[in-house]
Amino acid sequence: MIYLKTPEEIEQMRPAADLVSRVLGEVALWIKPGVTTRKLDTIAREFIHDNGGKPACLGYEGFPGTLCIEVNETVVHGFPSNYALRDGDIIGIDTVVEKDGFMGDSCYTFAVGEITPALTDLCRTTRESLYEGIAACRVGKRIGDIASAVQTYCEKRGYSVVREMCGHGIGRHMHEGPEVPNYGRRGTGAEIRNGMCLCIEPMINMGSKNIVIEPDGWTCRTRDRKPSAHYEHTMAIIDGRTEVLTTFDYIHQAITDRFN
Ligand code: MF3
Ligand code: CO
Predict the structure, then answer these.
(1) What digits encode the pLDDT tens for the residues 160-179?
(2) How far from 25 is each of 36, 134, 157, 184, CA to CA, in Å?
(3) Which of 37, 101, 121, 204 has the most CB within a 10 Å radius?
């Protein structure tokens, strides 16, 4: 279902979007070699509770964490675990928080210590493709315009786009319509309208686009075990403008930006 929001409802989306952004900024302070992903999960869960929110992933269809943990070849939906981060890893942290009845969803892929130039380029390109998608997200255009912008940007640079996982609408529910794929054709799909709240989340692979789901039923990794990067923002279409409700500013305050 696509639920168009009133301007008042979009105002109510802001606290959730701000809180999820601050959660990623808090987690960013702790990302270094030796830290377990379970420790990051605990920090996030406590931070969300301390700030009046609820961790929306925890228990969602049985998901066991506050954070989705995406180390190296993990594309999405990895579990927090005893894995200790290593110098040279990349780690995507994807999470959703509920505040005052609305959801905010964001993801950022971090470098652990020093990463190779190839990984830096994968992360930079994926992050830039998110902003290409956002630039294509305009009233009167279509979902396929976003999808095509992301796909073109990444494929031109030699990367591949995961097909099975998509962005989505968001609001009182974590996942609402429409689906927002990261591949597709311009001029196709649902029309972008005032009142839509959308998550754009490119999942981009260094090798082939193929993925497998692990026997745990959740963890999605690349079939060739080459690395994958993932970034996500929540945005709202208001008064003919697209406004990004989440921000990476808290993250960039917390870390030296290694992607420039
Ligand atoms: N941003 C992720 C998504 O849209 C969040 C998933 S939370 C989980 O799929 F609980 F489903 F893992
Ligand atoms: Co999402």
Answers:
(1) 999 999 999 999 999 999 99
(2) 17, 21, 29, 32
(3) 204
Asked whether 212 and 166 are in contact (CB, 8 A), the reply is no
Does the residue 77 lie in any domain? yes
Q: What percent of the chain lies above the pLDDT cut of 70? A: 98
Domains held by the chain: number: 1
Ligand 1 atom 6 nearest Cα: 57
Question: At what angle are helices 7-28 and 37-50 packed, to 10 degrees?
Answer: 140
How far, in Å, from the CA of 80 to the mean position of ligand 1?
A: 13
Determine, yes or no, domain membership for 1. Answer: no
Mutation pick for ligand 1 pocket among 96, 176, 179, 233 (CB with most ligand atoms within 8 Å): 96
CATH code at position 211 = 3.90.230.10
What confidence tens digit (pLDDT) does each residue in 66-122 have?
999 999 999 999 999 999 999 999 999 999 999 999 999 999 999 999 999 999 999
Q: Which two tokens stand for residue 98?
A: 């509920």
To test ligand 1's pocket by mutation, which of 76, 107, 162, 231 has the most ligand atoms within 8 angstroms of CB?
Answer: 76
Distance 82 CA to ligand 2 centre (A): 24
In-domain check, residue 22: yes
| 7 to 4, 118, 185: CA distances (angstroms) | 10, 43, 30
Mean of the pLDDT values across residues 225-254?
98
Q: For Cα atoms 234, 239, 245, give the angle at the middle one, nearest 5 degrees.
A: 20
pTM tops 0.90, yes or no: yes
